[in-house]
Amino acid sequence: MNRVKRLNLYLCLLKAPLMMIRLMRNQRLKPPELRELQNKKLRAIIKHSYNHVPYYHHLFKEAKIKPSDIKSIDDLNKIPISKKEHIVNLPLEKLIATNINLNNCMTLRTSGTTGNPLSLYWEIKARLTFFLQHYRWQLECGDKITNKHVVIGARWVPVHPFQKIGIFETKRISNFENIETQIEEIKKFKPDTLIAYPSCVRILAKEAKEKGEQIKLSLIFTSGEILDEHTRKLARDVLNAEIFDGYGANEVGGVCTECVKHEGYHIWSDSVIVEITRDGEPVSTGERGEITATNLTNYAMPFIRYNVEDLGILIENECSCGSPFPLMKITEGRKSDIVQLPDGKAISALSVYSCLLPIQGIKQFQMTQEKTDRFTVKIVKDSKFTDTTIEEVKQTLKQRLGDVEVEVFVVDNIPKEKSGKFRQFITKVPFQP
Fold this sequence. Notes:
By secondary structure, this protein is of the alpha/beta class. It has helices spanning 3-26, 31-52, 54-62, 84-87, 92-95, 124-140, 179-189, 198-211, 229-239, 349-353, 389-401, and strands at residues 82-83, 105-109, 119-123, 148-152, 169-173, 193-196, 219-222, 242-249, 253-258, 265-267, 272-278, 281-282, 288-295, 306-315, 327-334, 338-340, 346-348, 362-371, 374-381, 405-410, 425-427. 37% of the residues are buried.
């Protein structure tokens, strides 16, 4: 980080306490007040994007709309939806605001799981807002600033600048370290809270259970991958901790998180607008569709009506926790996490591979759909693996998938993605909506 950027970061950190107070107050707004806050922020970023971001200026011109046409969330559908395929090959100067000093920005990249990675620029203030919202989420779920935190693989979590005086004291452990080393580091540090990808939690809990390791945690916060119910149960039974899951994307930041009631995921409405769309049009509340998000804070590289290609559902009911932030449900993950069967049916990959999670003898596995009727499964075995484990995997999948071919291979290890995430399911079958 250069000197100018470091100075800007320190100046923003001085404002962090006041920013945090405002963010905490947002959670106490009434729904009409929250909507008006969204509309105000929406009008501002629309005007800015039209005037200073070449991509959006051209997009609005093509759609024959002006900033004055977008007065509220109800007008959003006048703007064409953007997808990664529309912008990934554009020059950065088309996507970055012309009036923003890049010395006031942080850079990161999308993981590239579904194709080419994308370079992103975030204003330092906008990125700090994201970090503070993450802390707000943790505190609302019972975390404490004096708790000790261990982070495994979760790159969205910063090292808090005040941890030397006991505030959010954090230890990072690489998820590329072998699991034995991870456990030893955790036992030495004795954390209260774990922040990790769901796959990291699952591997940790399974190893601790098999080896009889005593790991005592209070809270676990996950994001970055789909969280399955088997992993939730493992966390409770083995790690004695309750899991709170969150969802976001590097392009648009944090989107939604669970609260203590676990009745859905609360949308971070003070920084993002979420629509659920299908074929470019919003669907009704309660219907499944593609998550389309508009970030309201990042003026350096705005994303307006951006289809992140994940699937979700808006929930009509209010949460019993009393939060004004509306609820949504994260369903199968990405469109690429859909299993398309020979009979034309399409089902969630999560509903398929989760049936393998309880099978004894498997430390880790990865499932690949080679063709509509052919699947391969790589398995890393543990001490409970027997001669019947492979056959159990085959029969379990055939019961779920029908008349398909299943091949199982035992391997020593299954590599993670460059991002550190673990892909439980891979498909080579093009998605057919």
